[in-house]
Amino acid sequence: PVRSKKILELQQQQSTTLQKEIELAQKNQVELEARKQQELESKKLENMSAEKIALMAKYGYEAEDGEDGDDAGDDGEGDDDKPMSNKEYAAQMNVQNAQKQRATHVQTKKEAREQTAKAKADKNAKKEERRKRAVKGERRR
Asked: Which position has the higher pLDDT, 103 or 138?
C-alpha cells in the first residue's frame, strides 16, 4: 500500500512536469513562428528604413532566402531576368581571367628545351668572345 502510493505520487509528479514541458514547448513554438513572421515582414521593402530603401535602390537588390543556389550549373550567360550580384560577377570574372591567363602562357616542353638551349648557346658565345679579347690583350688582369 505504501509503495503503490509512492509510485502513484511519482507518476503524478512526472505527468505534471511533462505537461509543463509540453506547454512550454508549445509556447516556444508559437514565439518562434511569430519571430519568423516578423523577420519576413521586416524584409519587405515597405517595412525597411528609408536609408536601407535608398541603398537598395542605388546598389541593387536583396536576394530572397529561397533563391540561393537554385541556378546551380548556370554560367551566368543565360537569359535570366534577375540581375547578377556583385559576388557572382566577381567570381565569374576571376574564372574567365584565369582561363585567359592559362591559354596565353602555354609552353610546351619542346619550346622550353629550345629556349634553354638558345640561352646556353648565347652564354657560351659571350664566354668565347671574352676569351678572344683576352688573347689579343684587350682584357687585363
From this structure: 103
